[in-house]
Amino acid sequence: MPDEGECGFEDLLTDLAVSFVNVEPNALDGHIEDALRSIVLFLGIDRSTLGRFDDRHSQLMPTHSWAVRGVDPLPRTMDESHFPFLAGKMRAGEPTILERIADLPPEAAKDAAAVRHLGLKSMATFPLAVEGKVLGWLSFGALRVERQWPNRLVRRLRLIADIFANALSRRSTEEDLRHALAENVGLRKRLEAENAVWCEEVLHCRDFDEIVGESPRLSRVMLQVEQVAKTDSTVLLLGETGTGKDLIATAIHRSSRRAQRPLVRVNCAALPATLIESELFGHEKGAFSGAVARRPGRFELADGGTILLDEIGELPFELQAKLLRVLQSGEFERLGSSKTRHADARVVTSTNRDLETMVGEGTFRSDLYYRLSVFPIQVPALRERREDIPLLAAYFVEKLRAKLGRKVMRVPDRVNVELAAYDWPGNVRELENIVERSMIVSPGPELEVDGLPSSMRKHQETAPGVSDSETPPVPTLAEVERDYIRAVCERCGWRINGKQGAAERLGLKPNTLRSRMKKLGIERPTGASPSV
Question: What's the rounded Cα separation, in Å, for the pair 282 and 136?
Fold first, then answer.
């Protein structure tokens, strides 16, 4: 090469080195194509190609190429088995310089045939290596006439290969870093979401000690909790509002093998129908107006844990099919995404509505109902376990004393009688509210009931025509219990055993009820049908 040409190539090499120093990753491909063009035109060769190894398919994969007019680029893929000798040298980090294809050794006969098939007469191939790791290869080829590759040119072409290799390595490192940062951002957002769920769980966290009562009905519920907790079966909690279904769901989760993962709560009645799907399954950025960022759904957050779908009877009909799919396969898609995701979440649902009636009315899917009711638990109303009322009242006094800063220490018998006489349509929640309000106005160590519903005040009101000094005496707890059991027996026609019998209505075993009736002096009236 003439001195002038050599100086020109030195200038080209310098320009290439400078241009690749701070090139942006997304602009690197264009810089490589321009560099290959400049080299081919300066050297007067026909084609230059940069490629990588596809180890999975044993292919040589050209990624960048430039050729003079009339010369085709290399094929998009080339089977590495056609170039065993040349590919072996490239993978070993060794260049291959051929002024004639005939210069290949005899053991490279297969390579020679493949190279001639590509139309090459002379070639120089260099590995793209960084710190001993081969990233790919760079080749220069002459297709029209054979040409020489002087040592000084080979050294400079190897420098160009090093420039390309370093640029590709930097891009790979930056892409890995950006990917890692994106993963970190995604993990941070997930952790923030899970932290919010854990904070919510802490607010709802309760020990089993908060499930207060010794009644047979409550004992049966706790037995069912113990039976189902260790499984992954879907549980349906049925019961009136305020009966403590949330406490039972917490007990199921905390007794399960998923207790170390969160219990995620979703109140289907508290969310607009348009937002429930996003809340359950998540959404992508731009999925709807106001979706300014990607957000995982509650099922994703509950992965490995438990999800409580409260007030499941309020779930819109159009979403019931999607919930059924999650129950069957664990699969769902975020709003605005076609990517199928999977979540392993144990499902517990609760409702105060009659789902069977809703199925008959066509407002709740029968297949979803059967899927949800694998293990139904009926949480009893407070009026069905009246014997627990004194225990609950004492518990709430103890629980609220520090919060309210009151000196109330006990609940007197007369107050327990009054509380037991009421039907409690709001159940345990209503009882807690009454106790809290009463503690606020109680001046001494005994609870003075305040703010009683009208049906509770009947024992405190003065009878018509009777002065305050003649107020009838407050009945004892035994008297209230006697009247109540007698009323239930009369309603059941004095039938003790069997379905809808007095024992079942009272939540007692028949023999237990008979023993209590004998203790309280309750006898079947003459002429009444014999008890069964």
Answer: 41
Instruction: Compute CA distances 232 → 73, 102, 252, 256, 344, whole Å.
Output: 59, 71, 10, 8, 10
- CB-based burial, 368-390: b 16+ in 10 Å, e otherwise: bbebbeebebebbbbebbbbbbb
DSSP 458: G
How much is the pLDDT for 466?
40
Reported as a pLDDT band with limits 50, 70 and 90, residue 199 is very low
Phi, psi of 404 (to 5 degrees): -90, -15
The amino acid occupying position 497 is: N
Among 257, 243, 261, 259, CA closest to 207: 259
Least confident range from 16-30, 238-252, 259-273, 298-312: namely: 16-30
Backbone angles phi, psi at 105, to 5 degrees: -70, 160
- Residue 146 to residue 99: CA distance in whole angstroms: 6
The Cβ of residue 504 has, within 10 Å, a number of other Cβ atoms equal to 18
Residues 281 and 294: their CA atoms lie apart, in Å, by 12
What's CA 205's distance to the chain center, in Å? 19
**Amino acid making up residue 1:** M
**Which residue, 266, 287, 273, 274, is CA-closest to 345?**
266
Q: Is the pLDDT of residue 205 over 90?
A: no
Separation of alpha carbons 156 and 527, rounded Å: 119
Pairing of strands 122-130, 346-351: unpaired
pLDDT of residue 2: 45
> What's this model's pTM, rounded to 2 decimal places?
0.53
Work out the angle at residue 79's Cα, subtended by the Cα atoms of residues 74 and 84, and round it to the nearest 5 degrees: 105
Q: Any residues with CB less than 8 A from the CB of 418 and at least 6 apart, and which?
A: 449, 452, 456, 459, 460, 474
- The mean of the pLDDT values for the chain is 84
Contact between 437 and 396 under an 8 Å Cβ cutoff? The reply is no
Q: How far apart are CA 457 and CA 187, in angstroms?
A: 57
CA nearest to 107, candidates 119, 89, 95, 94: 89
